[in-house]
Amino acid sequence: YNTITAECTADSICNVKKDLTLTLCAPESLTYDGTEKSAYIDDNYNKAAFPDNYTIEYFNGDKKLSSVPVGAGDYTAKIKVGNAVASVDFTVAKAKLTVTSEGYSGTYDGAAHGITVDTGDSDAVIYYAEEELTKDNYMTAGTTEDLTFTDAGKYTVYFYAVSDNYDPVPASGSNTVSIAKSEATTSAKPTAIADLKFSGEEQVLVTPGSTKDGDLVYAVSDSKEQAPDDKEYSEDIPKGKEIGTYFIWFKVKGDKNHFDTEPECIEAVIGESRSALGDVNNDGIINVTDITKIAAHVKGKKLLKNDEIIRADINKDGKITVTDITKVAAHVKGKKLIKG
Length: 340
Known about the structure:
α3 (288-298) runs antiparallel to α5 (322-333). This protein is rod-shaped. It has helices at residues 11-14, 138-141, 288-298, 306-312, 322-333, and strands spanning 3-5, 21-25, 40-41, 57-60, 63-64, 73-81, 84-92, 95-98, 100-102, 104-107, 116-118, 125-129, 153-162, 166-169, 172-180, 182-183, 191-192, 196-197, 203-204, 206-207, 214-221, 239-240, 244-254, 258-259, 264-271. β6 and β7 (84-92) form a beta hairpin. 11% of the residues lie in helices and 34% in strands. It folds into four domains: 3-93, Immunoglobulin-like (Sandwich); 96-180, Sandwich (Immunoglobulin-like); 191-271, Immunoglobulin-like; 288-333, no CATH class.
């Protein structure tokens, strides 16, 4: 059906006896390469029998194309001479396409990471999923958006390549994304509060630190050489009440993307109160009011509290007695001033 034979409808044609057949030929290169696949008319025909310029039309099934086909597929080329039509069918095969993939391995950095699938300059579309993809499920189970991960962990990413013009090899496969935890850091380290003095009440010992990589945890120990066990740490800010040195250990308890840091130790000290002995109510003056408060304590009428006891224990024997009242009274009368 790819030929048209001239009929003797005029003397000028019937006097010619050779090459009265017009032949339409399929393209010679029939593998996709990005160029037009043009059918052609064999030059061995009689120009007198076929004097016109003939246009080749192309069809994809019943659909007439507006231009010469380029992509892979099944086509029909046609020419028409009068009422006669010559046609030739041809198929442009898909080109072979080598597909390669590369995984990712690195340390957590807060960025998203995925696998890389290389299909060169082809028109291939890649589908991704966390389950194996096949020709039967890639459209329902896969996505053409990059499948990426940010958190530390190991992930398997499957891919499936499809193309109108290429035959991907391999069409499917998988690779891994491996993100390791990174070392936690502190935005600010905790520091010991200076010049703490005994008050009889619990006092915060440190200015808290901060971190974006987990939680800062603390533990108070009696050793600055040996870090406490993990179970002894908490997020509570350390406090102390008694006079003395406190060894405060801290570390970052890493989140899902960070390792714990090594414990560090700082020292906080609660010193003796600077309040004057005898000035029980701490108003800056030793007077009858202070004597009255000590006496009420000794008689059991109104007990002194915490730092008041320290300031009332004039002889520092650990007890509040009549002796302390006598010493304060002597100070008030100017007979024997209290030292310290």
